[in-house]
UniProtKB/TrEMBL annotation:
Name of one Pfam family that matches: WD40
Keywords: Repeat, WD repeat
SMART domains with a match to the protein in the record: WD40
Signal sequence range: none
Protein name, entry field: WD-40 repeat-containing protein
InterPro entries the record matches: WD40/YVTN_repeat-like_dom_sf (IPR015943), WD40_PAC1 (IPR020472), WD40_repeat_CS (IPR019775), WD40_repeat_dom_sf (IPR036322), WD40_rpt (IPR001680), WD_LIS1/nudF_dynein_reg (IPR050349)
Spans of repeat WD: 2-53, 54-97, 141-167, 168-212, 213-258
Species lineage: Eukaryota, Sar, Rhizaria, Retaria, Foraminifera
Length: 312
């Protein structure tokens, strides 16, 4: 048990940075958590003690996300103080505060949207990986942060310029979750869930939603793509406070499947996470998933009552 936060814990992730970073030649496996106590804490998985505390937010801290570059050295956080902060895990310092949302920020994600342009413009891609930008981030050029907020918008922030670059409007209530999704053609889309009970898929260039999925009867709490490791992004999954998890086909624009958590088990489903089976991890020659292939994944979900369940 990791005990130290003084209020509700809103998000927990393994620290990808500390899987690679070696201190005195000893690899440290650690857990990162955000809390309503306004802090982000890193916990030693062996001792259960916090060894880093990031303080700076002035209100609840909600979602956190590690950088997909530089071995996860940077962590991004969303807060009810209306800001997104970018932290350097190695130095425990806040590098930048992104301001622009009109209300509390609930979720964040990070993706590389300009990789093809960057590779074209750099004779040696390693030069870009080692370059520090003007806010002190190494290897972040070409990467973008997305954030969802109580102000009903999704916003994109360029890590290189540290400026807001896009606003997506269409949800009729708070945006609880927003993620980047790769397309079959190698592009990127956005997928979001809201307390307006809908899931929306967005075209980044036009800043407009191209799909709206309706079916949930309460807040949409989380969205995920079960096939993110295969390259086939035609199916998305969502969870809701209506105690259901639903699968949606983007191409066919329809619901594929829904299952309900047992009333005695769950009072609303808060989060979902897919993990590939050992067979899927070893089956590297298969590049696409059909709908029948989802038995190769296990779905973990957390409920409002506290327990974590596995399906599949």
């Amino acid at each position: 048990m990791f005990d130290g936060h003084s209020d509700i814990v809103s998000c927990v992730k393994f620290s990808s940075y500390h899987r690679y970073y070696r201190n005195n030649d000893v690899q440290r496996l650690s857990v990162c958590s955000s809390s309503y106590d306004k802090t982000i804490r890193f916990w030693d998985f062996t001792t259960g003690k916090a060894f880093i505390v990031l303080s700076g937010h002035t209100d609840y801290v909600h979602g956190i996300e590690f950088s997909p570059f530089n071995n996860g050295r940077y962590v991004c956080s969303a807060s009810s103080d209306k800001t997104i902060r970018l932290w350097d895990v190695e130095t425990s310092k806040s590098l930048h505060v992104f301001n622009g949302h009109k209300s509390g920020v609930l979720c964040v994600d990070i993706s590389q949207l300009q990789s093809s342009n960057r590779k074209h413009n750099n004779n040696n891609n390693n030069n870009n990986n080692n370059k520090m930008n003007n806010i002190g981030v190494i290897g972040g050029n070409g990467y973008t942060i997305c954030s969802g907020s109580f102000d009903k918008t999704i916003r994109l922030w360029d890590l290189e310029s540290a400026k807001q670059c896009s606003i997506f409007k269409g949800h009729e209530d708070a945006v609880y979750c927003a993620i980047f999704m790769r397309t079959d053609a190698g592009g990127t889309m956005l997928c979001s869930g809201s307390s307006d009970k809908t899931i929306r898929v967005w075209d980044i260039r036009s800043k407009k939603y191209i799909r709206v999925f309706r079916g949930h009867t309460n807040y949409v709490t989380c969205v995920a793509c079960p096939s993110s490791q295969s390259g086939d992004m035609s199916v998305i999954c969502s969870s809701s406070d209506d105690n259901t998890i639903r699968f949606w086909d983007i191409r066919a624009n329809k619901e594929l499947h829904a299952f309900k958590g047992s009333d005695h088990q769950a009072d609303g489903i808060k989060c979902i996470q897919f993990l590939p089976s050992e067979d899927r991890l070893n089956h590297t020659t298969k590049s696409k998933l059909s709908h029948s292939d989802y038995h190769d994944y296990s779905l973990f979900y957390g409920s409002n009552k506290g327990p974590i369940y596995m399906w599949g």
